[in-house]
Amino acid sequence: MTIGLRQLAAFRAVAxxxxxxxxxxxxxxxxxxxxxxxxxxxxxMEVKLFERNRRNVALTPAGxxxxxxxxxxxxxxxxxxxxxxxxxxxxxxxxxxxxxxSTLLYQLPPLLIEYxxxxxxxxxxxxxxxxxxxxxxxxxxxxxxALVVLPLQMTHVRKIHLWDESFVLVLPSGHRLxxxxxxxxxxLRDDRFxxxxxxxxxxxxxxxxxxxHHVAPRVPIEIADTETIKVMVAHGMGVSLLPTSAFKQxxxxxxxxxxxxxxxxxxxxxxxxxxxxxxLRSPGLAIVDLLQQHLRQLWxxxxxxxxxxxxxx
Length: 313
Known about the structure:
11 strands, single chain, seven-stranded mixed sheet, about 325 residues
């Protein structure tokens, strides 16, 4: 019997994501290649691994059995490669890092440049996407660590809380209220809002804040990308509520006027997550330390929370 690792990787990705399309996205290969790997694996083992319909795929009993062994195989391979590399240098090997926030993605380049300078033997892979996409990739063992917005209901990951971030009201500079010294959300009750898409944790937090203040906003535009929201607001298409990390500290955003919202009223918690089955090794711990240093520079006075073991929740 000849079973290839690429076949097993394709099988694992389809099994975890429940979709051939999402599997090819997580593996960065074509859907036809994924299908070929699965068909080859089924032919080699003379079993049916998936039940297929128009909407999704589900594991057969044989597929479920193979998935359990598949996880063990890849975990052992990863441990073996890491152990061999660490004989010479503990800061070596591969580290796949996911970021589930478009707001934070453009805050990361200086940190990633510094990481590459300090640890040139680590092959760093960066993956961006929605929280759902990042979780799917972590479940498929395609990610070692990810930066996410809490809350997150996942029992099979550990969380290291990094910091709590406040929000700001964002208006076009030509808005009727832009020259006021202070602004409340109630004053924008009749405005059009441009917000993040529904389902994102950031959007859920904003919706709860608006509900508490009895503001039922008109939201004709919902966008996943924070930079696009800022451009649309600057062009007078509406107002928004965005995390403070959307703006460089000390700079004046062109075409925009921002008003701080007290952190006690609206904030979001950001954390690093990683699988419980794979404890963080030196490369992962190093990027967490750099994140904490970077965030303390951006927002002085912000301290992280730790669990009793000092690693996170």
